[in-house]
Design a protein that fits this description.
Elements: H1 3-20, H2 31-35, H3 41-52, H4 63-72, E1 85-91, E2 97-103, E3 107-114, H5 123-137, E4 140-147, E5 160-163, H6 164-173, H7 184-200, H8 210-217, H9 219-251, E6 257-261, E7 265-269, E8 274-281, E9 284-291, H10 299-309, E10 317-319, E11 322-328, H11 335-354
Parallel strand pairs: 3-4, 4-5
Antiparallel strand pairs: 1-2, 2-3, 6-7, 7-8, 8-9, 9-11, 10-11
Helix pairs in contact: 4-6, 9-11, 10-11
């Protein structure tokens, strides 16, 4: 074997070692991913509106509101939740719409929610409209762009960029005292929403598994291995044809309908729906007893006869309606050995069926 061939083999062996070392854990899907809505901003804004409202049935009180306040640097996160009003798609003076506007005794809060949409908003209009509300309400303004990733301040004048991860970190730090009064159902939904946004924030928007990332990094080598596999399977087909010819000569019985199936199986179709199959796989050969529909009831009787005549099959195993009579876990087993194994069984079964 040439040095190049040896180097290639070592490369592929190392590739398989690395594949075996990949983490086995798979990230389970969230309910939003199952529903097909993880990246819909309106859906996410509706969920935020629900959890920002301390009077809603989630039982978490003003946890999300105070977590947002702490991110904004409000002292002790103390945003009053008294006389609170939440507006979705609040219209501005210029006819634009702000995703969430929350009015409280102490603050008027604007939240522009961004999942994947690029920033084409008129933030000057947004800011002017919020400042107008602040004068009317006699409170303070807080203006946020909430997204999966940070946004440069020059892109969002007068607004503060915060990420979902930052908001969730603050929320999780303060969740403990609220757990005893939280509704378990709505708490679970919140945790599912948190997981959804964290997965969306991952660098790969297609959410590749570790195995898929491994394939992306090793496409050329893996494709070459697949070509080797296809060549290998083609050679298996030639062995199937060879052993089929050997068995046909030994049986020499016109009552047996014999053919090759999918290039890897030799089928022996006997009378009354009884079938024998010989298959070659990547690891060896297998000899099976099966039946067509009309032979289902007769198959147990045929199997009993085989076990009586050939005691070596007494420990045969039934797998999905087919009886595994013999396995050879060796592709290089002598074909004559296989022929000598199966021909007497097929001949005996033909004789048995003729007596039925």
């Amino acid at each position: 074997m040439s040095h190049t061939a040896v180097d290639s083999l070592e490369k592929y062996k190392q590739l398989l070692v690395e594949l075996e070392q990949l983490p086995s854990e798979r990230s389970s899907r969230t309910i939003m991913q199952v529903a097909g809505y993880p990246h819909y901003e309106n859906v996410c804004s509706n969920i935020l509106s629900f959890y920002f409202d301390p009077e809603e049935e989630h039982g978490l009180g003003d946890l999300l509101l105070q977590s947002l306040g702490k991110l904004a640097g409000v002292k002790d996160g103390a945003i009053s939740s008294n006389c609170m009003e939440i507006n979705r798609e609040r219209s501005t003076d210029e006819g634009n719409r702000i995703d969430l506007v929350i009015n409280t005794e102490t603050h008027t809060i604007a939240i522009e929610n961004k999942i994947y949409h690029w920033l084409a908003n008129d933030f000057a209009d947004y800011s002017k409209s919020i400042d107008k509300l602040v004068k009317e309400n006699d409170n303070q303004a807080l203006k946020f762009v909430l997204g999966l990733h940070p946004v440069a301040s020059e892109e969002i004048p007068d607004f503060q960029s915060i990420t979902y991860d930052q908001l969730w970190e603050e929320l999780e730090n303060n969740l403990g005292p609220h757990l005893h009064q939280a509704d378990p159902k709505w708490l679970q939904y919140l945790l599912d929403f948190i997981k959804t946004t964290k997965q969306l924030a991952q660098p790969s928007s297609m959410d590749f598994t570790p195995e898929e990332e491994f394939y992306r990094s090793n496409i050329d080598s893996i494709d070459h291995l697949l070509k080797i596999k296809n060549q290998f399977i083609k050679k298996l087909g030639s062995r199937t044809a060879s052993i089929s010819d050997l068995v046909r000569r030994e049986l020499d019985d016109p009552s047996i309908n014999q053919w090759i199936h999918s290039k890897r199986g030799v089928i022996f179709d006997l009378q009354q729906g009884i079938v024998f199959e010989l298959w070659i796989w990547e690891r060896g050969w297998v000899f099976l007893l099966a039946s067509r529909k009309e032979g289902k009831e007769l198959q147990p009787e045929v199997l009993k006869n085989i076990k009586n005549e050939f005691p070596r099959y007494k420990n045969s195993v039934n797998e999905r309606g087919k009886e595994t009579l013999k396995r050879w876990d060796d592709l290089d087993v002598d074909q004559g050995t296989i022929v000598n194994e199966i021909v007497p069984v097929v001949q005996n079964t033909v004789t048995f069926l003729k007596g039925k």
